What we know:
About 45% of the residues lie in helices and about 10% in strands. By secondary structure, the chain is an alpha+beta fold. The longest helix is centred in the middle third of the chain and has 32 residues, at about 200-230. It comes from Moschus moschiferus (Siberian musk deer).
Amino acid sequence: MGTFCSVVKFENLQELKRLCHWGPVIALGVIAICSTMAMIDSVLWYWPLHTTGGSVNFIMLINWTVMILYNYFTAMFVGPGFVPLGWKPENSQDSVYLQYCKVCQAYKAPRSHHCRKCNRCVMKMDHHCPWINNCCGYQNHASFTLFLLLAPLGCIHAAFIFVMTMYTQLYNRLSFGWNTVKIDVSAARRDPLPIIPFGLAAFAATLFALGLALGTTIAVGMLFFIQMKIILRNKTSIESWIEEKAKDRIQYYQLDEVFVFPYDMGSRWKNFKQVFTWSGVPEGDGLDWPIREGCHQYSLTIEQLKQKADKRVRSVRYKVIEDYSGTCCPLNRGIKTFFTSPCTEEPRIRLQKGEFILATRGLRYWLYGDKILDDSILEGVSRIRGWFPRNCVEKCPCDAETDQAPEGEKKNR
């Protein structure tokens, strides 16, 4: 019993809970359906024991499934890597260039960001992916990208098998006339008879699996190209957004400065090797990064601090005039508010009349901001932020006079 407990650790059981989420359930369900139907249909179309081509086809199909699942579970369970709790730079003077995370009680290392879902600061965070129910970052960026590559390739192979199976099985069952189309879905008219009868249920299941395979090829394939685009520039999705906001900040204030992304090595091959290695272990330790010539070690974090200060300046103070329960699509806030709810996993915040909010960005009927907390409530609580309906709040008179707009709604200059 003691040996069993030492093998099955509490942390491992916690990690298995990642599977109990709609993202992994759907992703693994699609993989299971496409793989199972492809193996069944490959037996009908190209019996693997009769010819060398059939054997190669079946082995390749199993190989796709194994590699897809291996990279999927690696990305999920290995995880992105987290900044150690209580981390601080070796040189204490460098802390002025870094943001401090109140939740992790540590400084945010360069290229790291705090994930609300994981509740930790993630090293080289790209995004939190619901399909693996984990973040994509420093340690699992390569395996996640390989999954995005292998899934469409496997689905293309499976889709080819589905099409050829339906064609060969229904070829002798279709008779086309000028006015009628007759379909015979009885046993196949060939000798020998198929091991698995291709009836109406098999046809419907194959057609459904074909739709899943084609949809996965398009959707996941687009994600792969997006990931490769930023990897070849040695960026993450968040860093691409930071760079865009840097250009926006400089243009907004008409500053005489240029932001240069410090981690682009100037060569696509060098950038590629920062993520993909023969050993499978990414370069570095996830805390210190090589930079291009002419850049400061903390160029990116300094820009983040400037954007954070600019965000506070351009934020607008609102007062809550009506209670809001924090529901995703509130029916009592109007039809337009209901149907324009932000399509994001970012949280909604519960509001009570009389509270104050600092809004930093917004849509036509929704705003995103931080709740202003009293000092008594603030102790032990980092931030309460999220989306809320516009018609629940009104702009404070002092901010109305300045006529500032939340980020993303700048007035034309």
